[in-house]
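In keeping with the milestone schedule agreed at the kick-off meeting, the structural modelling team has produced records for the first pair of proteins. Each record is given below as a sequence line and a structure-token line. The laboratory manager (R.T.) confirmed that both were archived under the project's standard naming scheme.
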Amino acid sequence: MNRIALGLGAALLATTALTAAAQAGDIVRVATVPLEAEITGMYITEAGDFFFNVQHPGDGNPAPYNMAAVGAITGTDFNALPKMIKEHGVPSGDAKGKILSSLGSYQIIGSEGGLREHFPAGLGAILAVDGKTVVKESNDPDFNAFVPTTADSSEGYLFTNWEDRPGGTSRMHIAKGADGKWMVKKDGNMMVDFSSVNGTWVNCFGSLSPWGTPLTSEELYFDNTADWNNPGYKRHKDQLKLADYLGHFPNPYDYGYIVELKDPKGEVVPQKRFAMGRYSHENAVVMPDRKTAYLSDDGTGVVFFKFVADQAGDLSSGTLYAAKVTQDAGTKDPAKAGFDISWIELGHGDDATIESWVRQYDGITPIHYKQGSSSYLSDAEINAWAMGKADDNRAVFLETRKAAAAKGATAEFRKMEGVMINQAGAANGTVPYMYMAMSAIGKTMSDDKGDVQLNANKCGVVYQMNLDKGFNVHRMVPVVAGHGYNKANKPNACPTDSISNPDNLLVLNDGRVLIGEDTGSHENNMLWIYTPKSP
């Protein structure tokens, strides 16, 4: 257990009152994954079962740990963890190639390419729109969501993202036996058919809506749409993969959205939520009011967004906002500096209208590309919208990040990852906080320009935001910060006594927070549990 006090070059900071100075808290390492793997897809059921994935482990690990895995820790109720938790040590020797935890045994439910009796092309195989051609055999499982079919959550559907171009989502029908182990049932297993929405792109993290639908996130790492049909662009092969999936060159404005999976216990109907904006979605989390959602944007020079739906339980129309932050004066230390948040209204939209704008860009291919101009919405058109000179709001929903920046929002965040609450605790006020991971502090966050001017921290920070009674947030403060990056200490350039590049977050019923890593600065990626200091 690591406890480091504020003001001592702290690695760890915890906040119990956002108006007060940050106070010391505890983090404990509770699991590690095999070499070259990262921790993804953290999800806890109402019965306390904890799922997470092992993404892209190294081929040199011993079987079965050389294959990407979807699984769960068995034998532990994560909704009733003891206050004192045994710390899991830093692995050495053969342990570096395994999945290990101090909280229980990890069960592999399915591995990449496996479960052929349930998935004929293999788990994680992404099929073209013809439903037959395999365009990608993915080893990148990400978001998990469990949709129960029994009152005790002992049976249900486990949805898992496969983070590729094109992207995919699997659904496994699983049931828990008397021994606590999960088995895959014979019926109801599928790779979700996204052909009705022209496929998906890099399905990353996500969340389960309060009404029980998985919200999968398209992480659109594509900052300049003008290059989408540029045959000389360095990543043009990604668009060609999507063309192989579709059978024609893709429209860029079909990708970069939250995708809601309606009827998750039945046929599974994907619906792209255009009104929530187009950017590099890490995930969206809907508040207990069933209207307000917060959305993280992954990349460099990115924006924090808020969406307020017109009707509770319906994400098809609403108003989109972007954050403008003011950094605390007097410090550039990312372990100390908080930010006040104000919200800039970008515009109101609905899925049907926005999709009609999207369709106007169908049929554009690389033969239409001209150097120095755009076949799509241009920066000049976005700036004209910001000055009130546009005929419609398409810039808001098709080029959301650029539109937000043009209206004065803070477009400087770096590697913004998971944003998460505890639904029950947020609803009843016992855990009135939202948390966000910032995988690394650098580049646009540490360049001495704009709203964010921090010192670099290559090991990352987790921020906490207080939720008021209306589920608004007006401030973010650092509560856990990595420390001591030293390239010379590779493969553990970030010290093993604290976090390195936090990614997935999960807020427990008692207010503690699980932090999963996606890092190359720990030899083995680690899972931590953070305990805020009591008032």
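The second protein of the pair:
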Amino acid sequence: MKAAVVAVSCMMAMALAGCGGGSASDGEALKVGVIGPFTGPAAIYGEAVKNGAQLAADEINANDPAFKIEIMAQDDEHDAEKSVNAYNKLRDEGMQVLVGTTTTAPCTAVAAEAYKDRVFTLTPSASGPAVTEGNDNVFQLCFSDPNQGVAVAEYMAANFPDAKVGVIYNNADNYSSGIYAKFKSTWEGKGKKILATEAFADDANADFTAQLNSMKNAGVDMVFLPIYYTPASNIMTQADKMDYKPTYFGVDGMDGILALEGFDTSLAEGVLLLTPFTAYSEDEDTQKFVKAYEEAFGDTPIQFAADAYDCVYAVYDSYQKTGCSVEDDSATICEAMIKVFTGDFTFSGLTGQNMKWNEAGEVDKTPKVCVIQDGKYIEK
């Protein structure tokens, strides 16, 4: 998918965004930072983000002789302190725009630094409200946590009105607890009950015997898992050994479970999850992206790759409207990009059509529900 370049005259752009004169590129590249967990338990997310961003940059560089993007990537291991260190390293290396970070807790820490430094930030997948709260320079391409909680509750109520619902969530993780809180209020607001609720912490995500016994004893037949793929895989594996076979419903953090090394993916058959993208869509743009991604990286892309791909194209499209030069500093570019994103800018990509952003940094896009069938994500 190739995003259209919007031509804007220099004088109009300067009036709109306040950048100095100059072309989109004066023979150099816009330096775009990417931060995510390239190692550790969330590495599937980070690698996908890095690859998706690089693929978009490669396409732009090949198809627009007047513009170049340089991707600068740093590993944060899904750790807030390491993420800030990665951010500072990229700043030292001349980063002008940040696509990241990948996960919520690290992004919340980095967003505070980017706000002080005035670095425009578009995260592909850090969905917590704290990421954008009070940070006028930070925008999300992903669904926010509250929106995910609402969407799942509404989908369940419409499609599984008689489900006996339970929840297992991570109460030490803002992403998980935020989605759970909104799901709970929405679900109960519809007159529904949650039959069992169990929590766990980051340092206790291997043994779920107690939580699963609680679900089983309460008669739960649909377990909502607003969690990442690693603990979700442990839950499914242990439930199978207990001969407990509920339907599982996950959110965007569940994506990647089919690529998890050592996990019996047959246990994920029938899992439902909220996602903006599936590689098995028959959409022409999606299939072009999947083919290019598989050729470049030897792997089928998950939604995090598509999110990052869209982020880079959204940066590319919006940057054309600023009238900025790559010789401008990050603060100048930041103020110009904010004006574009909070104006009439819309973007259509792999993860949504006619996406718009509000001043709070949240994106308006329609969620999709997929089911895992025969080892594939199939849109419902």
